[in-house]
Write a structure and sequence with these properties.
This protein has about 400 residues and is of the alpha+beta class. The protein has two domains: about 60 residues, no CATH class; about 240 residues, no CATH class. Helices cover about 60% and strands about 15% of the residues. It is built from eleven helices and nine strands. Strands 2-5-6-1-7-9-8 form a seven-stranded mixed beta sheet, sandwiched between helices. A two-stranded antiparallel sheet has the order 3-4. α8 runs antiparallel to α11. InterPro entries: DUF155 (IPR003734), RMD1/Sad1-interacting (IPR051624). Belongs to the RMD1/sif2 family. This is DUF155 domain-containing protein.
């Protein structure tokens, strides 16, 4: 390429020099245009008779292009340069494609203790995505279309997908995909219409999915995000199930923590006074709350249910296992179970104490009745003896 540029410059300078010499040569003759033209014509004809063919083009007055014509000597350089440019272009294109990442925001909410999926499915039937497995009875997936929005990519802002997805679970969770913060309330309002037991304080968790088409592995993890080649509806179901379970588990853990605090206060009072003043009704309420929380975690949330999607495809099984480890679902349930056992132990102890207290009361009642009966018997004996003496 460098030798081509050098030859181009030399040809251009030579042409300028020859043109300037011809101009000076013509200016030395009279100014008459006709004589000047005839002289130049004769001069040119004479020069063409004596000058070799290879030099005629340089002495004539036809216009030459400023773009150099490559010499056969440099043909190989030209081809190599084009090949090098093409190769660099392909490498840059591949590099850009590898660095291209589409960010999809994911938001999980726990807003109620129960959601009527049947009524919701009937109202939004046009948005419901048909289930692909029999284990999808405790949730529904909905798809909405909207105008494309801008998402942050590696190379700047890019137009993201115009599809929005929402996965709603029966136990009260809703997971939103590709929905911006200012659009969340409008989508959650669709869920609240069919929810019961709405919470005064809604729980929230943020996550992200990054799409990288040229990713070598099926998935790659990161802090608060996961990288996939592409996010399809089965991937949405798998990710939504783990995030929904995780945010619901946070709620149930907070409920059990509240019960642990109650029993901790009772134990401290017993330590100070040697007695407790809890009523039997309050204790039964705590018993019912502990049992319902454990049943909800195991049965409704389905922490230990098998996913048919993950069972069919190892790719989704890998995503499921990674997210369960990332959110420490098993460990957190273990902590919840330990706290429930602590609550259960305290409940049994207090039940026995209340039972003993009731037994003591009944014993005192029996003793009182026996005492009254004895008093009445003594009175009758005394009364009969007194009447006999009279």
């Amino acid at each position: 390429m460098g030798r081509w540029r050098a030859s181009s410059s030399s040809l251009l300078l030579k042409q300028i020099k020859l043109t300037s010499q011809s101009f000076l040569f013509s200016s030395s003759f009279p100014s008459s245009s006709s004589s000047s033209s005839s002289f130049l014509l004769k001069s040119t004809q004479q020069q063409q008779q004596h000058i070799p063919i290879s030099k005629q083009s340089s002495w004539g007055f036809r216009f030459l292009s400023a773009n150099p014509c490559p010499s056969p000597i440099y043909d190989n350089d030209f081809i190599d340069g084009v090949h090098e440019f093409s190769q660099n272009y392909e490498e840059e294109k591949e590099k850009v494609e590898k660095e291209r990442v589409t960010n999809i925001p994911v938001k999980a909410y726990f807003l109620s203790t129960s959601i009527d999926l049947k009524s919701m499915q009937a109202e939004y039937s046009c948005n419901v995505i048909p289930p692909t497995s029999r284990s999808s009875s405790n949730y529904i997936a909905l798809r909405y279309f909207d105008f494309p929005f801008k998402v942050a990519g590696t190379g700047g802002e890019e137009i993201g997908s115009c599809w929005r997805y929402m996965v709603v679970f029966q136990y009260g969770s809703a997971v939103l995909f590709n929905i911006e913060e200012d659009e969340v309330d409008s989508y959650l309002e669709l869920v609240r219409r069919h929810a019961s037991g709405l919470l005064s304080e809604m729980r929230k968790d943020d996550y992200a999915v990054k799409e990288k088409p040229l990713l070598k592995d099926d998935m790659q993890g990161g802090p608060d995000y996961i990288v996939l080649k592409s996010l399809d509806i089965d991937g949405i179901r798998i990710i939504g199930s783990v995030l929904g379970q995780s945010i619901a588990l946070d709620y149930f853990v907070s409920q059990v923590d509240g019960m642990v605090e109650v029993f901790t206060d009772i134990n401290r009072d017993m330590e100070k006074t040697g007695n407790f003043t809890m009523r039997r009704k309050k204790l039964f309420q705590l018993v019912g709350k502990a049992n319902s929380n454990l049943a909800d975690v195991i049965l409704k949330v389905g922490l230990f249910d098998r996913s048919e999607i993950a069972w069919r495809d190892a790719k989704y099984a890998q995503i499921l296992e990674y997210l369960r480890e990332e959110y420490e679902v098993t460990q957190r349930f273990g902590n919840l179970d330990f706290k429930l056992k602590f609550v259960e132990h305290n409940i049994h102890f207090l039940q026995e104490s209340l039972q003993n207290r009731k037994s003591d009361f009944l014993e005192w009642c029996i003793i009182s009745l026996l005492s009254i009966e004895n008093i009445i018997s003594i009175y009758e004996i005394i009364h009969e003896s007194t009447a006999g003496n009279l």
